[in-house]
Amino acid sequence: MKILGIESSCDETAAAVVENGTAILSSSVNSQIQEHQKFGGVVPEIASRRHTENIIPVVQDALDQVGLSLEEIDGIAVTTAPGLIGALLVGVNFAKGLSLATGKPLIPVHHIRGHIAANYLAHPELKPPYLCLVVSGGHSHLTEVLDYTKFHVIGRTRDDAAGEAFDKAARAMGFPYPGGVILDREAQKGNPAAYRLPRPKVDGSPYDFSFSGLKTAVVNLVHNAAQKGEALPVQDLAASFQHTVAEILTGHLLMAARDYHYQTVAIAGGVSANSGLRTMLSQRCEREGIRLYFPPLSLCGDNAAMIASQGYFEYQAGVRAGMDLNASPSMPIDECVWQ
Ligand code: KG4
Ligand code: ZN
């Protein structure tokens, strides 16, 4: 079964064709990062306009790459929530138009479920149940993946998402947006033990995350150094920050794996590209005899192959959308309105 996936929840316009949820036949991603960079973050209004301009060429490219016509597609999956509402609406409306014109089924997809599904594209042998840490720019979730479309969230962030913390810390250190990947690169040249940074805990909720105190500690260090006119060893600070976040994320995931009796864990989302997190988790999982899955770097960030993959599993579970489908800026991963 061939699913066309469409993604426009933030600053990437993407389309892809995936067969049976696991084989990428084509993938096209148009990133607007350079345009948003000069504003230090995504400008929603600009993102929506660019999606409107880019969506047809991107979908056409995904079909052309594999030489398929719309008639040969079996279903149209689209990111419906969560995300920037104006950006989401472009993809949702376009997918509705395609579905109406072709008569192909329309399948709504939760963006974070899509991030998790990126693992099925790289590791088709991975099958629920397992435990997944999803860390992106807008979300940090620790969730049981009970089935492809059934989730039970056991931890979430109380303030900043992990990617947001990376981006804000990076900004304080003087790196351009999106800072996460640059902070990662600089961290690899620094000493992770140079700074002892706070590891905030959430009272009474051991699986929840809190990153704002850690981010504030970094911002204060940078400001204090600037006030005293001291040069800050920024690579050491980047390495210490990255090491601390990796310890928090690894600690939570492995504690939950122990408590909930999981031998298989996965990570997903933009921050799952982080080298410090990947290395630390790989070492700790190997030591504890836990199977760890993470997506290849090419599938960590936003793309439509992951949406087409999840769309396949939603379709198998009987999920369909009508022509009244609407986008939503927020929606819990375990309570999608269409289920
Ligand atoms: O999943 P994603 O592409 O978009 C959302 O759904 O939010 O995640 C983007 C986030 C950004 O905050 C970005 O800085 C972060 O992922 N990110 C990283 C790395 N690559 C991307 N953070 C840390 N290290 C990286 N290598
Ligand atoms: Zn994303």
Largest sheet: 5 strands, mixed
Distance between the termini: 21 Å
- Percent of residues in helices comes to 40-55%
Class from secondary-structure proportions: alpha/beta
Nearest-angstrom radius of gyration?
20 Å
Q: What's the β-strand tally?
A: 10
Percentage of β-strand residues = 15-25%
Q: Report mean pLDDT, rounded to a whole number.
A: 97
**Unreliable stretches covering 5 or more consecutive residues:** none
Bound molecules: 5'-O-[(R)-(carboxyoxy)(hydroxy)phosphoryl]adenosine, zinc ion
**Tally of helical runs:** 10
| SSE succession | EEEHHEHEHEEEHHHHEHEH
Oligomer description: single chain
Q: Strand order across the biggest sheet?
A: 3-2-1-4-5
**Principal-axis shape:** globular
What would your notes on this structure say?
By secondary structure, this protein is α/β, with parallel strands linked by helices. Helices cover 43% and strands 19% of the residues. The chain contains 10 helices and 10 strands. The protein has a 5-stranded mixed beta sheet, with helices on both faces. Helix 2 packs parallel to helix 3 (85-102) and helix 8 packs parallel to helix 9 (275-288). The longest helix has 26 residues, at 234-259. The radius of gyration is 20 Å and the shape is globular. The two termini are 21 Å apart. The model has no long low-confidence stretch (mean pLDDT 97). The protein binds 5'-O-[(R)-(carboxyoxy)(hydroxy)phosphoryl]adenosine (KG4) and zinc ion. 5'-O-[(R)-(carboxyoxy)(hydroxy)phosphoryl]adenosine binds at residues 10, 115, 136-138, 163, 166-167, 178, 180-181, 184, 269-271, 273-274, 301-302.
